[in-house]
Amino acid sequence: MRHGKKFNHLGRTAAHRKAMLANMACSLIEHKRINTTVAKAKALKQFIEPLITKSKTENNQTAEKGMHNRRVVFSNLRNKHAVTELFGEVAEKVADRPGGYTRIIKLGNRLGDNADMALIELVDFNELYNAGKSTKKKTTRRSRRGGAKKVEAAAPVVETKEDDSEE
Can you give the pLDDT at residue 63? Predict the structure, then answer.
C-alpha cells in the first residue's frame, strides 16, 4: 500500500533524485523547454514552481529576504549561472503571473522503450502560444462582495411605427 507517499520516487534514491531534478531544472531554465518522460516532467514541475515563485518575490522584499531566497534557490539548483538567469530574465518575465509557470505537452511514446514522452516548457517564453495575447496587465480584480458598478437605466427607446397606408 502507498499510504502517505505523496510524490513519485522515479525509481531512484533520494540523492540521485534530487541531483537529477536539479540538473533538469537548470536545463529548463537555460533552454526554456526540454523533452523528458511524463513522470519526470510532473516531478520537475513540482520541484521548479516554488523556486520560480521565490525568484519572483526577490524584487518585492527587503535585501535580506531577497538574499535569503537566492540562497535557498541555490541550495536546490546548485548552479550559479542558472540562479542568475532565474532571478534575472525569468523572474522579470513571470512577474505578473500568479502561478503556473510551466506547461507540460505530451508528445507520444518513445521508440526504444515505449515510454510516455512530454515537452515541459516555461509558459511565458513560448512565442507561438503568446503571439495573439496582449502584454497589457489586467487592472481589474474580481470580487465576491458584489461591488460591481450598477448599470444606469437608459432612457426608454420610442419606436416609431411607419404607416402602411401606401398599399
Answer: 81
Using a 10 angstrom Cβ sphere, with 0-12 exposed, 13-18 middle and 19 or more buried, the burial of residue 42 is: middle
Q: Model-level pTM greater than 0.70?
A: yes
Kindly report the number of other CB atoms within 10 A of residue 69's CB atom. Answer: 19
CA–CA distance, 7 with 5 (Å, rounded to integer): 6
pLDDT tens digits, 49-72: 999 999 987 566 778 888 999 999
Q: How far is CA 21 from CA 7, 17, 39, 40, 117, in A?
A: 13, 6, 12, 8, 16
CA 78 to chain centre: 22
**H or E stretch including 74?**
helix 63-77
How is the beta sheet containing 116-122 ordered, strand by strand?
A: 33-37, 116-122, 102-109
